[in-house]
Amino acid sequence: MVPIDLRSDTVTQPTPAMRQAMAGAEVGDDVYGEDPTVKKLERQVAALLGKERALFVPSGTMANQIALMLHTRRGDEVVIGEGTHCAEYESGAAAALSGVQLAVAGTGGLFDVPELDAKIRPSAYWLPRTSLLVVENTHNRGGGRVFPLDQLRAVTAHARARGLAVHLDGARLWNAAAASGVRLDEFAATADTVSICFSKGLGAPVGSALVGPSDLLEHALRLRRMLGGSMRQCGVLAAAALFAIDHHRARLTDDHEHAQLLARGLCNVRGARVDPRGVETNIVNIELDGPSAERVIARAKELGVLIGSIAPRFLRAVTHLDVSRDAATRAAAALAAAITDCHAT
Ligand SMILES: *Cc1c(COP(=O)(O)O)cnc(C)c1O
């Protein structure tokens, strides 16, 4: 039996229709700026986010790192939320490539104006220069939580008033928009640059975009080249992203419902702590009282469910394109059984 894979929304397989769109894509050499499908994707994403220009890049990590390079100088400090992707999951790139240090505001990924303000340094040449705020929406480690638009507007306005640039890591901004009813461009308007992924909930195999004003993006083109991210006939990849935007965006709310099914199926299981009200999008964090995440992961695998952990006693389940409603229901039962088995022994 094929296991139900809840480790991440990156594990999806391109659908037959998506593969067909990829196979039929009109392509050219994008280093020469001659790939019409890439151009189409970049225009469409820029328009969706209400920005002047978008740049197709191989990964969200590269989009974030280009943004850090654009907005900072070596020795600067960047304010981030706790558990942010660019601090935790990018192999130390912020330090290695941009030479910046990171200051964490608030807890759990979200923060308010006083928490941000406490991390912005006064201006003095012997102190690091605080030059950038990075906000993540939805927040990955924070359990897919949406950074609410009002709060996002307040913190980013404060950051700007104190002279900081703002980068929005919107790898899952599609989910934030689907869950909150806020438009993508309303979220994007709070930031100078935005990164957005096609390979998460949208289900494309590869790719992200960095979006922002033309002058910054012109330099981003050079930085992408430096990082080895300028690609040739990558319209075959852009075609998958275009297909995903057209066909997989509307169904993201299904993933959110399936995450609710999981959360509600687990909230009364002894040994597990889940609050369905805290599940806003497609990520369910499960805190374990007794057994280690490692043991539950092994038992769940025997019962046909693959799941990941974000800490020794925290499981993370993510719903996506390849998890049907029925699969989510079965996965909830299997995970409940796995946790109960591990709790009892
Ligand atoms: C997945 C993700 C990224 C980018 O990841 P890549 O694997 O490099 O595409 C960036 N930010 C967040 C919040 C993510 O979840």
Q: Main beta sheet, described?
A: 7 strands, mixed
- Helix and strand content put the structural class at alpha/beta
Report how far apart the termini are. 26 Å
**Can you give the helix content as a percent range?**
40-55%
CATH architecture call of the largest domain: 3-Layer(aba) Sandwich
Shape call: globular
Kindly state the number of beta strands: 13
Give the quaternary arrangement of the chains: single chain
* CATH fold title of the largest domain: Aspartate Aminotransferase, domain 2
The kinds of small molecule bound in this structure are:
pyridoxal-5'-phosphate
What's the helix-strand series? EHHEHEHHEHEHEHHEEHHHEEHEEEH
Rg calc: 20 Å
> What is the CATH homologous superfamily assignment of the largest domain?
Type I PLP-dependent aspartate aminotransferase-like (Major domain)
- Strand fraction equals 15-25%
Strand order of the largest sheet: 2-8-7-6-5-3-4
Q: What number is the mean pLDDT? A: 97
Count structural domains: 2
* Residue windows where pLDDT falls under 50 for at least 5 positions: none
List keywords for this structure.
345 residues; Aspartate Aminotransferase, domain 2; alpha/beta; 14 helices; Aspartate Aminotransferase, domain 1; seven-stranded mixed sheet; globular; four-stranded antiparallel sheet; 13 strands; binds pyridoxal-5'-phosphate; 2 domains
